[in-house]
Amino acid sequence: MDAAFALIPPPQDVTAINHILVLLQEDRSFDHYFGQLAQYWQTNGYPQATNGTTFDGEPTNVSNLDPNGDPVSPFNLQTGCTENPSPSWNESHGDRNRFNPADSTTAPMDGFVHTAGKDATGFNFYDVLGHRAMGYFDGNQLNYYYFMASNFATSDRWFAPVMTRTQPNRMYLYGATSQGHVNALNTTNSPPLTAQTIFQLMQNNGVSWKIYVQPDSSGCTTASCLYSHSYLSQFTYGKYVLNNLPNQFAPVSQLLTDMQNGALPQVAFIEPAGYVGLDEHSPTADSTGAGTIQAGAAFVQSLIDPLMASPSWKDSVFVLSYDEPGGFFDHVPPQPAVPPDSIQYPTDILSTDICANNTSPVCGFFVTGFRVPLIVVSPFTKANYVSHTVMDYTAILKLIETRFNLPSLTARDAAQPDMTEFFDFVNVPWATPPSPPRQVKTLACIMEALNSVTVSPNPAPAGGQATLTLTLSKNAIQNVNVALSSDQPNVVPATTQIANGTSSTTLNISVPSGISSLTITGSIAGIPVSTTVPVQ
Questions:
Q1: Fold assignment, 14-30+138-422
Q2: pLDDT tens-digit readout, 312-350
Q3: Cβ-count burial 301-336 (b if 16+ within 10 Å, e if not)
């Protein structure tokens, strides 16, 4: 009997998965993080570069107009953190369609820079022109993520569930609905949601689960402390778990122990650790010590790499994504979606908000949010795979429901693909996992951005002298290097500096003869601002 039992082959379908781990980091769009993947494949010889893989990365010919009417094209950010652009309801609808945000038929994706500039003005940030919204990172800066997305699987049609901020999207992650909310509960003094969550569904059906939480700076690991950092607190079931099932909350250190000891639950959700600067969220205040995207990526690596090296690897899936795009540009419009329940339109917006008393589909829960990054890490993951199937990340719930034979929570998760397209259960491509590089930490946190670049006099005198002025909207909080370039040679030095505690610097420049105009660009941390003046 024992010998016969030993010969039973492992399952070659979704039941081969015994552990599903889920982490959603914060506020990054697909183009902003993964828009340069195709170039990475080409540079590093990945098969996707030559085997016909299609990929909808960031085009080079897209742009948004800034508040001055100047077009801003994508550019490579050179800072590990930028001032936070708002992804909230009004702002997201303006991002999708700046001039007609309630129009369901047209999505020019033209308002990201305008929104980011307006936010900066309202919050006394530096980047009042909003240029940061068009910035992107590449495989040299996010080397761990690019390696993992390229070796394992990603998707260029993976969307947040709703076109608004963190809290409602995370309601969808846990409950496949926001029950009409598009704002955080505490902004509208709303009670917790009564909707059934995936945790209650699993608890009632004998599926083991835990929520792992990184302790805050106090180091407290009691259930109460961990619960305070869990988005399950948005649901009434959260308080039930705290009072009756407190061991369902565990510190992240326990996750690593459970991996190594083969003691993982069937489903594990990991909360983002923004309160200790590890969730990749953009800073909401100007400072020099904010957490960087590279610190966040290194934290994620500290969770995934131990899984790959543990006995738990053989039958686990780790899904990494982001809750919403954080106000950063993406060129692909949100997609049609199924409202989760009978509440088809927001119940918590003001009469002055975009879409108030408007039944256009884009004003309700008939549309997803924007694209966000995805990496599916598992021994079963197809190698070098890119999905093009439209889904929002309630598809994670559908995967859990499919694997453990659970019913859907709402019509939204019921409508999603079950994610099995990402896997090859027969050949198990990554039974031996790859050896990823260590996430680099090369990017400093530079919050400043130029407000203006001016040349005086204007027009500039051909063959004469002029003054170049580089201005911030407020005093710098550190010495700031400004990279300079011109469309004419030998006009500006390669760099100059705006000193800590000051808001501008000036340089004398020699204006060439024989030209009709002169363009000069100043960039702080990759964020460019240009001026063009006539020359007479």
A1: Alkaline Phosphatase, subunit A (3.40.720)
A2: 999 999 999 999 999 999 999 999 999 999 999 999 999
A3: bebbbbbbebebbbbbbbbbbbbbbbbbbbbbbbbe
Cβ neighbours of residue 349 under 8 Å, at least 6 residues apart? 89, 182, 183, 355, 356
- Domain borders along the chain are 14-30+138-422, 452-534
Concatenated DSSP letters of 26-80 = SS--HHHHHTTHHHHHHHHT-GGGTS--------TT--EE-TTS-EE--EE--SS
Alpha-carbon distances, residue 379 vs 13, 172, 308, 373, 439 (angstroms)? 13, 27, 9, 20, 21
Q: Could you tell me the sign of the dihedral formed by the alpha carbons of 250, 256, 259, 260, in that order?
A: negative
Question: Which pLDDT value is given to residue 4?
Answer: 52
**439-463 as b/e, with b when 16 or more CB fall inside 10 Å?**
beeebebbbbbbbbbbbeeeebeee
Contact 133, 115 (CB under 8 A): yes
- Going through 344-422 in order, the beta strands assigned E by DSSP cover 374-377, 385-387, 391-392
Please determine whether the domains at 14-30+138-422 and 452-534 fall in the same fold group of CATH: no
Identity of the amino acid at 334: P
Return the sign of the alpha-carbon dihedral for residues 419, 423, 426, 430: negative
Give the pLDDT score at 3.
Answer: 52
Predicted model pTM: 0.96
Give the class (CATH, top level) of 452-534: mainly beta
Q: Give 83-117 pLDDT, tens digit per residue.
A: 999 999 999 999 999 999 999 999 999 999 999 99
Q: Which amino acid is at 208?
A: S
For residue 494, count CB atoms less than 10 angstroms from its CB and return exposed for 0-12, middle for 13-18, buried for 19 or more. exposed
Alpha-carbon gap, residue 98 to 92, rounded angstroms:
9
Close Cβ partners of 204 (under 8 Å, ≥ 6 residues apart): none
pLDDT of residue 290: 87
Tell me if 128 sits within 8 A of 120, measured CB to CB.
yes
3-state SS assignment for residue 437: coil
Tokens representing 339? 């409202």
